[in-house]
Amino acid sequence: MATIRDRTVIAVLALLPVLAVAAPLAAAPRPNIVFILTDDQRWDTIDKKHSVTGTTPVMPKVQSLLVNKGVLFQNHFVTTALCCPSRSSILAGKYAHTTGVHDNGGPDGGVQVFDDSSTLPVWLHDAGYHTGIFGKYLNGYAAIAPYIAPGWDEWHVFKAPGYFNYHLIENGADVAYDSADADYSTDVLRDKVLQFIAEAAEPFFVEFTPYNPHAPATPAPRHVGSFAGVAPWRPRNYAEPDASDKPAWVQSITWTQQDQTGTDTFRQRQLECLQSVDEAVDAVVQALKARGVLASTIIMYSADNGYSWGSHRWKPKQCEYEECMRDPLIVRYAPLVPRARKDSRITLNIDFAQTFAELAGATPDPGVEGRSLVPLLDGSATSWRTDMLNEHWNGKIPTFAQVRGLFTKPGGTPHIWKYVELVSGEKELYNLDRDPFELSNVAGNSSNAALVATMAARLRELDPGWTGSAPAAAAPTAFPPDYANDDAFE
Ligand SMILES: [Ca+2]
Ligand SMILES: [Ca+2]
After folding, report:
1. 33, 204 in Cβ contact below 8 A?
2. Ligand nearest to the CA of 247
3. Most exposed among 10, 94, 97, 451, judged by the fewest C-beta atoms under 10 Å?
4. Centroid of ligand 2 to alpha carbon of 256 (angstroms)
5. How far apart are CA 80 and CA 159, in angstroms?
6. Residues with a beta carbon under 5 angstroms from ion ligand 2
7. How far away, in angstroms, is 420 Cα from ligand 2 center?
8. For residue 316, how far is its CA from the centre of ligand 2 (angstroms)?
9. CA–CA separation, 393 and 99 (whole Å)
C-alpha cells in the first residue's frame, strides 16, 4: 500500500510553490500532456443536465477548471462505442477496422489482438517524453500481466479493473489493494498521478484512466447517496414506445419495470461515481499549478464510449444511436485556447494521438487515420470533416457501420443525417435536425433513395472493407448479449 507515502507527497507538493524556480512565462514549445480518460461516461454528464438541483454541475471542478478555461467540443464521438476497441483506437489513432480490435474479447478483440508496437506512448517516448499510465489499459490485460506495453516509463495498470479489492501491476510488480475506504481505486490512482506530475522530468505525458463510472459504478464511500433524489431520466426516446421502424434487435427488447428500476439506480450510481473523478481533476490542476507548469500543460478530458440509459430500450453501449457514440471532450491549453469557448465541429477519439504527436513534435505512425485537432484549437483550420464513420461488431446488436454528418437531398437543404447498414441487411436513416431522438427511421421512404445511395457510397469511402449485408460478423452466440454486464471482459 502506497497511501501513506503518497499522502506525504501531497503534503510536500503544497510547499512546492515556495521552492520552485520561476515558471516560464511563454508557452513551452513542447507541452506536458495530461490525458484523462473515463470509462462509459456519457457526453452530457459534466454540466447541470443530470444534477439533483439543476443548478450545480454534475462535475463542478471539470466545469470550472476545464470547460470554463478551455474548449468544449460539442460534437465529439467515438468510432466504436465499446471499451477495448475505443481504447485501442485512441492509442493507435486508427479505426477499429484497421487495428483489428473489434471487441473486448474473443477472436477479434481484447488486448492480445492489439499491435502495440507503434502507438502514442511510443511516439512520445521516442520524442523525449517521460510517460506514465495510471488505470485501465485494455480489456483482457490480466491474461498477459505483468506485461508492460512499449513506450511507458511508469506503468500502474489494473490487472482487472475494480473499485475495491483489485490488483495493480506497478512497473511489473503485482500489488493487491483491499476494501478499506483508502483503497478506492480512483483515489489511489489519483495520488500516483499527483506524484508523477510532481516528479516526472519534463516534458511528460500522463494518461489517467480511472474505472469510473463503469459498472458496477461503485461511488467512493464519501459520495454514496449524493445523487439521491435526482429526477428520473425520461428523454423522448426512452424505452422507445413505437419501435416498428427499428431493426429487429431493438424490437426484440421488452423494457420491463425491472429494467427501468435497475437503469435508474445505475444512473444515480454513475453520477455519484463521477464525483471522485471530479475531485481528482481538481487535484491534478492544483498539482500542475504547484509545480508551475499549468500554463505549459495541455489537459484533455474524454471518455471511451457513451451509455444509453434506456433510450431505444437499450441499457448499455455499442449501439448506433447518439447516446452510445457521443462522449465528452474538453481541452484546456491556454497557449492555443486563451479564452473559454465551444466548438461544434466533429471530433473523434482517433484524433487524440495525432493531436498529441503534433504538439510534442513526435513522429506518428504513417498509417494514422485520425486528424490533429491543433488547427481547431488554435483557430487555423480553414476546413474540417463534415461527416464521420462509426462501427460495431458482434453481440446482440448485429455488426453495423454508419456514416453521420452533413448531407443534402437532391433539391433540398443540408441537414445532419445518420445512415446505418447492419449485416442483417437492415438499414436506418434519421434526419437528426428534425428527429434528434432518432424516433423515425426513414430509410425505406422512396423520396430518400438518392440520399441513401449517396450516403452508402460515402460509407464505403470511409470504410473500404465494409461488406454490407455479407456475412461479416462473428457468431454472436459466443458473446454475452448485454454489455452492461461485461465485467468478465474488463
Ligand atoms: Ca468503456
Ligand atoms: Ca420509433
Report:
1. yes
2. 2
3. 10
4. 18
5. 23
6. 242, 245, 439
7. 15
8. 19
9. 13
Q: Cα of 313 to ligand 2 centre, how many Å?
A: 11
Q: Which residues surround ligand 1, an ion (CB under 5 A)?
A: 39-40, 83, 304-305
CB atoms within 10 A of CB 115: 13
The CATH architecture one would assign to domain 400-472 is: 2-Layer Sandwich (3.30)
Per-residue pLDDT for the chain (490 aa), expressed as one digit of tens each? 344 444 444 444 444 444 444 444 444 479 999 999 999 999 999 999 999 999 999 999 999 999 999 999 999 999 999 999 999 999 999 999 999 999 999 999 999 999 999 999 999 999 999 999 999 999 999 999 999 999 999 999 999 999 999 999 999 999 999 999 999 999 999 999 999 999 999 999 999 999 999 999 999 999 999 999 999 999 999 999 999 999 999 999 999 999 999 999 999 999 999 999 999 999 999 999 999 999 999 999 999 999 999 999 999 999 999 999 999 999 999 999 999 999 999 999 999 999 999 999 999 999 999 999 999 999 999 999 999 999 999 888 999 999 999 999 999 999 999 999 999 999 999 999 999 999 999 999 999 999 999 999 999 999 999 988 755 444 444 444 444 444 444 4
Centre of ligand 1 to C-alpha 175, Å, is 24
Separation of CA 131 from chain center: 20
Residue 310, C-alpha cell as written in the block: 434506456
Tell me, yes or no, if the two domains 29-380 and 400-472 fold the same way: no
The one-letter amino acid at 24: P
Q: Which ligand has the shortest distance to the CA of 316?
A: 1
CATH class of residue range 29-380: alpha beta
> What's the grid cell of residue 186?
480512483
Neighbours of 316 (CB within 10 A): 26
Which grid cell is 447?
Answer: 423520396
